[in-house]
Hints:
Helix content: 10-25%
Order of helices and strands: HEEEHEHEEE
Number of strands: 7
Shape: globular
Low-confidence stretches: none
Structural class: alpha+beta
Strand order of the largest sheet: 3-2-1-4-7-6-5
Radius of gyration: 15 Å
Distance between the termini: 23 Å
Number of helices: 3
Mean pLDDT: 85
Amino acid sequence: VVTSLSKAKKDCVIKLSLTKVCFIGVESGVLGGISLWSEIQQNKYFDDYHIEGRDERNEIYLECNLEQLSRALKSAQNAQLLKIKLARKEGAILSIEVIQPTLCSTQRQLVHEVPVVLVPP
């Protein structure tokens, strides 16, 4: 989903809620408005999903570069485990941890850090 969206928009706002992950492409300029909207049901893509927003709706909005996010997620294609966490490290980041099998029955761990901007709801 992210790779397809990255071909249409450079940046987007990601809305995380208890049941969905929404990708929202916002146009800048005089007319403004939404130019792209895609949502996925979290229970169809994630075995384990936790979110703790700071407001009563329990939602988190963040803006990120879709190309950077797509590159980070491509390394998870054959992963045994994919963990995505919102973290703070000289600014907000999505820390994407990927654990992949190797040919010699060991595991390889990759960690990608995608910068994000927290957006007020």
